[in-house]
Design brief:
The complex is a heterodimer of chains A (144) and B (692).
Chain A (H helix, E strand, L loop, with lengths): L4 H7 L6 E3 L3 E2 L7 H14 L1 H4 L15 H7 L4 H11 L10 H14 L13 H4 L2 E2 L11
Parallel strand pairs in A: 2-3
Chain B lengths: L2 E3 L4 H9 L10 H6 L35 E7 L16 E3 L2 E6 L4 E6 L5 E5 L5 H4 L11 E4 L4 E6 L4 E6 L14 E3 L23 E3 L2 E4 L19 E5 L5 E5 L31 E3 L4 E5 L21 E6 L5 E6 L15 E7 L2 E8 L7 E4 L9 E5 L13 E5 L20 H11 L12 E2 L7 E3 L11 E4 L4 E7 L4 E6 L11 E2 L37 E2 L2 E2 L6 E7 L4 E7 L5 H4 L2 H5 L16 E2 L3 E5 L4 E3 L2 E11 L5 E7 L8 E5 L2 E10 L2 E9 L5
Parallel strand pairs in B: 24-28
Antiparallel strand pairs in B: 2-41, 3-4, 4-5, 5-6, 7-8, 8-9, 9-10, 11-12, 12-13, 13-14, 15-16, 16-17, 17-18, 19-20, 20-21, 22-23, 25-28, 26-27, 27-32, 28-29, 30-31, 32-33, 34-35, 35-37, 36-37, 37-38, 39-40, 40-41
The chains are: A mainly alpha (144), B mainly beta (692).
Chain lengths: 144, 692
């Protein structure tokens, strides 16, 4: 089926996905391994009870690993995911951690979903993370 | 390479979080202006009618033009609570051009202009600790409408389990109902809940209103790790819709001396709870019967504290609408220990079987059986045979030697996971699947749960979220065909372990060998507007290794289906995989190398269907991105006769409740409740373009 273009523009009201040529990708190593390790601790403390030790999900809390989870964030930005977690998680006590802790736990999630670590730690400013695109599939040309 | 970027969300998100629920907007001018009888078609109950059809005879939107639908308006529910909601399940009602629905983490009630989506009034009850403690928070499935021709009322149950009656014109509580418009459902319950704030009970479903009778069910925390077997009992009650006076109570767990008590050995009915009706109640107004699809007794996977078949657990019960007296019942699963609790609204259908007109009730299920009974007598239309099933070896468990299995219609969804169900795109994948599952038990329907050990973590199953869940089915009253969505790949592993001291008085709860046993949260628990509730134990974990092979689902497609079940003859007329193949499957190197696979459908339990004159309509619950469109989900329409897809339109977010349709000023609309992933709750109203 074909979708008419004007319709797509109308949809772009909330969190519009706008193609952009220059910009960073989650495939370029946007967090450090140390950060992800710290994030593992945060995860065990604050997330694991609901989302499961192996990130598989339990009860109503969905898995935070695997194709379905990544699809939810495909073509969104790391800033979108960061602010979603920051403002709504842990579900029973949102916005209860520091921005650093949220960045660490996000690094842990990215690592578990196969996005590579790099040399620079993840920024903790939403507006900066909003310039880093998430794509489920590794773009052919992206650097490591 | 294309990198996608969006506007920062942070500003918007921060604003949402500081906005508390608005005070009620007074005045009736809004509703008065929006109300019309010009070219209207209404949708006045959760399921379109009390028979559970989800059917509308409208056909302005039809197979030829469905693809042209566009968004007419959208209503975001973020401000209806202290934080946005990501699980919007409500089906709105449409009455004379006005839309009524619940929404938001506060479960507020709103009236909207059906043509524009404009907010006309809003009502919310701030219940503090009582809602924070609720086992069933969030916006719920919706509300009910009642009128005697003069008075017009909107009724719903709050997060804290209070029944509220509002003036449909103003949103103000009805002073003649209960106490200032409110009935406290935690009282006058034939049992003592102790502290009214913490006493465990709530409900997500919309009340059923028939004549002057309003029927309310009950729901509880997730039954994986209950605190006690002696939980609240899920009695069903009816109230006078005008006054809030209680009319009757049906004891879903019989009291001593009542029919069925002896099906709980050792007087165990006295010390077990749950057994509620958390799904929608259907009513045959001619026969004067209400149909209750009762869930399981306490503890979803262990019943050692309740030996015996446990009536009316997992039964379909027909009760007298006026008195609540039982007319007939049929227990679909004896001594339930699989979390295969009754999930769907009973479908009251008039069909022709072997040349004779029959009034039947059909019940879809998590276990993929579609049960059909004469709805006056409860006698199965086609034989349902008591069939020998496997006996388990969990210490202290009581097993039913047989279970009732329908001879017709055939099973419409995966209800066991066996070797033949495992992924086999390549021999290597099949091999890996067999290796992975060697640490688990596989088996057909009613394979009993096991104690988790390092050798066998649990039984791999499609129980808790498989088959048909709370959205239930739908049907076409003209043809007697039911349309039922089912999940075929909502699999998990279930094993049992003793809980640590202080967690539960049940000897075995859900757990995985080698990992600490923790409380498992249910739908919306601790997530409503007044949460945080007391925090969960931290540092804990649960969940076995991932049930996936090379990142792909462990079981074969289809992952989700819509089946057309012909209830005139008990056959499956057609079945289609519903939903685009997930990206991670479609783009998988092995699948690509195979040159692709037929559409798989999606693994989700959130899908409800809508039936119109010519179409079966349902959206998708997963985000996908294809060559010709960006990330989003599709709202799909199928030809009712053939199941052939006749059109699909883009949704910026995923369907999370069931769609409905209505007409105002001669224009037909379809509303889809959406939420998920990054998208918080939003109602999308679709209509055809005015100009083409």
């Amino acid at each position: 089926m074909k979708i008419a273009l004007p319709l797509l523009i109308a949809f772009g009201l909330a969190g519009a996905a706008v193609a952009q040529d220059a910009g960073k990708s989650v495939w370029q190593g946007i967090y450090t391994s140390e950060q992800a390790d710290r994030g593992a601790g945060v995860y065990a403390q604050r997330c694991g009870a609901c989302h499961g030790a192996a990130l598989n999900g339990t009860g109503e809390a969905p898995p935070l690993i695997g194709g379905e989870f990544v699809s939810h964030w495909d073509t969104m930005t790391v800033g979108d995911l960061y602010d979603r977690v920051r403002t709504t998680m842990p579900q029973n006590d949102p916005m209860s951690m520091t921005r650093e802790e949220y960045a660490d736990v996000l690094a842990f999630l990215l690592k578990n979903n196969g996005f590579p670590a790099g040399s620079q730690p993840m920024d903790k400013r939403s507006e900066v993370l909003a310039t880093i695109g998430i794509t489920a599939e590794k773009p052919a040309s992206s650097g490591g | 390479m294309k990198i996608i970027s969006t506007l920062p969300l942070s500003v918007a998100a921060a604003l949402m979080l500081t906005t508390s629920a608005l005070a009620q907007t007074p005045g009736k001018e809004g509703v008065a202006a929006a109300r019309t009888t010009n070219g209207v078609a209404n949708w006045t109950t959760y399921n379109a009618d009390l028979k559970g059809s989800r059917y509308s005879p409208l056909d302005q939107i039809n197979p030829d033009n469905f693809k042209d639908l566009e968004i007419a308006w959208r209503f975001k529910t973020d401000i209806l609570g202290s934080r946005p909601e990501y699980k919007l399940e409500s089906t709105p009602l449409a009455v004379d051009g006005v839309i009524y629905t619940t929404g938001g983490t506060r479960r507020a009630v709103v009236a909207l202009n059906g043509a524009t989506g404009e907010l006309l009034w809003q009502y919310a009850m701030h219940e503090g600790k009582r809602s924070a403690e609720s086992p069933r928070a969030l916006s719920g499935r919706g509300l009910s409408y009642w009128t005697d021709g003069t008075r017009r009322r909107i009724l719903y149950v709050t997060i804290g389990y209070r029944l509220v009656s509002l003036d449909a014109d103003t949103g103000r509580p009805d002073p003649d109902f209960g106490t200032n418009g409110v009935v406290d459902l935690k009282t006058d319950f034939d049992q003592d809940l102790g502290d009214l704030d913490t006493g465990e009970v709530g409900v997500h479903s919309a009340p059923a209103v028939s004549g002057n009778t309003i029927i309310i069910g009950a729901a509880f925390r997730e039954g994986f790790t209950p605190k006690t077997h002696n939980n609240t009992k899920g009695y069903v009650r009816a109230f006078d819709v005008r006054t809030g006076k209680r009319m009757w109570t049906f004891h879903t767990v019989p009291k001593k001396g009542e029919f069925g008590y002896e099906t709980w050995l050792n007087n165990s009915a006295d010390v077990n709870g749950n057994t509620g009706v958390w799904t929608q109640v259907s009513v045959d107004e001619d026969l004067g019967l209400a149909y209750l699809a009762v869930e399981s007794p306490t503890s979803d996977f262990f019943g050692g504290k309740r030996p015996g078949p446990n009536l009316f657990g997992n039964s379909l019960v027909a009760v007298d609408l006026k008195t609540g007296e039982r007319r007939w019942h049929f227990q679909l699963i004896h001594h339930e220990i699989w979390d295969l609790d009754n999930s769907s609204a009973p479908l009251l259908m008039d069909v022709t079987v072997d040349g004779k007109p029959r009034k039947v009730v059909g019940l879809p299920s998590k276990q993929g059986f579609f049960y059909v009974f004469d709805r006056a007598t409860g006698v199965p239309v086609w034989p349902i045979k008591e069939t020998k099933v496997a006996k388990g070896n969990v210490p202290g468990e009581w097993y039913s030697p047989t279970q009732p299995i329908p001879s017709k219609p055939p099973v419409y969804a995966r209800n066991g996971v066996e070797e033949k169900d495992l992924i086999d795109f390549t021999p290597d994948m099949k091999k890996k699947a067999l290796e992975l599952t060697s640490n688990y038990v596989l088996g057909p329907v009613y394979t009993p749960p096991i104690v988790s050990t390092p050798e066998k973590f649990g039984v791999i199953n499609n129980w808790a979220q498989g088959g048909t869940n709370w959205p239930g089915g739908s049907f076409d009253p003209e043809t007697g065909i039911a349309y039922v969505y089912a999940c075929g790949a909502c699999i998990s592993s279930t094993g049992l372990l003793p809980p640590p001291a202080g967690l539960s008085d049940i000897p075995l709860v859900v757990g995985v060998a080698g990992q600490p046993v923790v409380m498992i949260k249910g739908p919306g628990e601790g997530a409503g507007a007044d949460s945080p509730a007391p925090s969960t134990p931290v540092g804990a974990s649960s969940g076995p290794p991932r049930l996936a092979v090379d990142g792909l689902p462990l079981v074969k497609p289809p992952y989700g289906t819509i089946s057309a079940i012909d209830v005139n003859n008990g056959t499956i007329k057609w079945q289609v995989a519903h939903g685009e193949t997930p990206d991670f499957v479609r783009n998988h190197p092995v699948i690509k190398a195979m040159g692709g696979i037929p559409r798989t459908g999606q693994s989700t339990y959130q899908i409800g269907t809508l039936v119109t004159k010519g179409l079966v309509i349902a959206g998708e619950n997963q985000f996908t991105r294809t060559e010709d469109r960006p990330r989003g989900a599709m709202l799909r329409a199928y030809d009712k006769q053939s199941g052939k897809e006749v059109g699909a339109v883009f949704m910026p977010s995923t369907q999370s409740g069931s769609p409905m349709t209505y007409m105002v000023n001669g224009k037909q609309y379809i509303i889809v409740p959406t939420s998920g992933g990054n998208a918080s709750g939003e109602f999308l109203a679709y209509a055809l373009p005015s100009k083409r």
